[in-house]
């Protein structure tokens, strides 16, 4: 073999290896994966619920800081003065979510929802309080129930360093916008892991047909949990030999947590928002999680409908507001299941390999291998089946 030919062969191998290492990422629909039967909103994101905005602050510094903040703002007004009905469902309470008791007691939220790393939660709450007190119209406010969720990113991040600062909270809130949402290794998802692969931030939405109210349900997740990955019933984790309790050597940790944030424009009371939040847990199981002992799994749902907002102060003794009846909740339950499942998978497909503290690397899910497995189990292109739902 000539030296020239050897160099050419080496160059080709190098290019192929580089190409494989930089596998094209994308959302699951980019690869023919469809969850459920309902259509998505315009951006297939939580921001398809009118008025909702999302912002991130990502901290990637040196070899060991891999963390951040994600902010979800329910509407563009002063949320303290115009609170929104809300509810929380606790799937497994091994978590440090802040603000739960007042949400359960009063049935509303009065601040944006912030997601971050476990040990940063109190610092994030402090920054959020500063933000709320400085809003115009809140000059006389003396009590704020800050809502902060978290997952533990200590596998990739110097979690004990508590690196997120108040200025990072302000930047995440200031960057919040409607439209497409950044996913994967971003904001609060920077250092997270999911089902044996890199996790992160993911989002999705569903739009009900007009005959069922025409409402939109949007979901955003921060994924950081373990189990045995399944996609549309295909045993992907088992086929890839990467799952919890794998023998002879366990492939990945199972503890971690998941935050699920649900927005809808349907006029719902706190009671039915809690019922909606519960249904997101169906998706959690569908992707292969079982809520391990050390997993803090929370779903928080809120309604943006103008007529159900709760003024901070009112001279009216009674409130009258429309509400979707119990008999008409089922389409919304279906929408939140589908959107949550897709958001979780989007968080994994959009994530990339990450190297962090102590030189540890967490690989992103291998998309092309996964697609082959899905083809094997007839779990691709299910949108080609006869559609059961029409707008």
TrEMBL record:
CDD domains: DmpA. Residues 1-21 form the signal peptide. The keyword Signal applies. Keywords: Signal. InterPro entries: ArgJ-like_dom_sf (IPR016117), Peptidase_S58_DmpA (IPR005321). Gene3D superfamilies: L-amino peptidase D-ALA esterase/amidase (3.60.70.12). The keyword Signal applies. Belongs to the peptidase S58 family. This is P1 family peptidase. The lineage of its organism: Bacteria, Pseudomonadati, Bacteroidota, Sphingobacteriia, Sphingobacteriales.
């Amino acid at each position: 073999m000539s030296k020239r030919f050897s160099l050419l062969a080496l160059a080709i191998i190098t290019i192929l290896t580089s190409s494989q290492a930089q596998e094209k990422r994308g959302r699951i629909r980019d690869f023919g994966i469809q969850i459920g039967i309902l259509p998505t909103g315009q951006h297939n994101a939580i921001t398809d619920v009118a008025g909702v905005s999302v912002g991130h602050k990502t901290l990637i510094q040196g070899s060991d800081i891999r963390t951040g903040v994600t902010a979800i703002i329910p509407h563009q007004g002063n949320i303290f003065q115009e609170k929104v009905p809300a509810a929380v469902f606790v799937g497994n309470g091994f978590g440090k979510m802040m603000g739960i008791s007042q949400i359960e007691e009063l049935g509303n939220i009065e601040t944006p929802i912030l997601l971050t790393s476990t040990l940063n939660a109190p610092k994030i709450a402090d920054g959020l309080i500063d933000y709320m007190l400085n809003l115009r119209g809140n000059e006389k406010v003396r009590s704020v129930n800050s809502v902060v969720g978290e997952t533990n990113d200590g596998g990739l991040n110097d979690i004990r360093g508590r690196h997120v600062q108040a200025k990072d909270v302000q930047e995440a809130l200031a960057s919040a916008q409607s439209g497409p949402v950044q996913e994967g290794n971003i904001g609060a998802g920077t250092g997270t892991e999911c089902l044996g692969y890199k996790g992160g931030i993911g989002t999705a939405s569903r739009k009900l047909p007009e005959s069922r109210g025409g409402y939109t349900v949007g979901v955003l997740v921060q994924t950081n949990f373990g189990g045995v990955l399944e996609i549309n019933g295909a045993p992907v984790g088992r086929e890839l030999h990467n799952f919890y309790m794998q023998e002879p050597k366990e492939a990945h940790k199972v503890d971690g947590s998941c935050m699920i944030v649900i927005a809808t424009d349907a006029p719902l009371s706190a009671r039915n928002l809690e019922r909606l939040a519960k249904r997101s847990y169906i998706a959690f199981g569908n992707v292969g999680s079982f809520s391990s002992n050390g997993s803090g799994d929370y779903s928080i749902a809120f309604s943006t409908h103008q007529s159900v907002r709760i003024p901070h102060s009112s001279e009216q003794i009674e409130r009258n507001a429309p509400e979707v009846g119990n008999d008409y909740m089922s389409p919304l339950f279906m929408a939140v299941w589908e959107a949550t499942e897709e958001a979780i998978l989007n968080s994994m497909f959009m994530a990339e390999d990450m190297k962090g503290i102590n030189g540890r690397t967490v690989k992103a899910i291998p998309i092309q291998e996964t697609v082959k497995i899905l083809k094997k189990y007839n779990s691709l292109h299910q949108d080609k089946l006869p559609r059961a739902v029409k707008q």
